[in-house]
Amino acid sequence: QVQLVESGGGLVQAGGSLRLSCAASGIIFRIKPMGWYRQAPGKQRELVATITSGGRTFYADSVKGRFTISRDSAKNTVYLQMNSLKPEDTARYYCNTDPPEYPYWGQGTQVTVSS
Question: Which of 42, 50, 67, 86 could form an SS bridge with 35, CB 3.0 to 4.6 Å?
Answer without folding.
Answer: 50
